[in-house]
TrEMBL record:
It comes from Adineta ricciae. SUPFAM superfamilies: P-loop containing nucleoside triphosphate hydrolases. InterPro entries: P-loop_NTPase, Small_GTP-bd, Small_GTPase. This is Rab-like protein 2A. Keywords: Nucleotide-binding. The lineage of its organism: Eukaryota, Metazoa, Spiralia, Gnathifera, Rotifera.
Amino acid sequence: MTESVSSSSSNYSKTSDSIKVIVLGDSAVGKSKLLERFLAKNFEDSRYSTYAINIFKHTTKIDGKPVEVEFWDTAGQEKFDNLHHSYFHQAHACIMIFDATRKITYKNLDRWYTELRDIRPHIPCLCAVNKIDAAMEITKKSFSFPKKHDMPLYFVSAADGTNVVRLFRDAIRVAQAYRNGDTADFIDQIMRELEVSKLETTS
Ligand SMILES: Nc1nc2c(ncn2[C@@H]2O[C@H](COP(=O)(O)OP(=O)(O)OP(=O)(O)O)[C@@H](O)[C@H]2O)c(=O)[nH]1
Ligand SMILES: [Mg+2]
């Protein structure tokens, strides 16, 4: 079940002991659309820039056990910078998103990463390039940013759904692993799984 909670308060903090996954990236890279796609599994080409913070509560199962997840979504705009502290607070994993059609959004990941690491130095991160439906050639490129920081990279599309479930399922798994204290092995495992699926799609 999914429930959306909007908060304009910078003091909002995570409820109970749920897992918290945050998304980061420039405005209009598709953070909200990816979340909508994962949670509701549909896509409407409308554009509402996120205001303040949206929190989507989601219940799922991992290894047969129910897990409560909070996905936190915010606007990738300078004017919301003052909200970031509570946004990062208590997060267990971060999805860093850029836009396949706008190179600047990739360059700006460095800035987002620095901000994140100031507050959450150790949480696992996953990187995703969205809108591959509009720029398929990007799937042939390699990217130094995720490599440099040991992040798995996902080629995704909120518009047609490519890899969206995989990205969020892995984010939940890795967030849970972080909470249980065994992140490093888990990231390695995800990297290996991605490598295998890449070989399968190219062969
Ligand atoms: N072609 C294509 N367009 C997309 C995709 N994902 C999002 N968009 C479009 O990109 C625009 C921005 O999407 P949003 O999800 O609102 O972006 P955001 O990152 O949440 O933006 P802020 O809330 O301002 O930070 C919308 O017009 C979407 O329809 C995609 O996978 N493919
Ligand atoms: Mg948004």
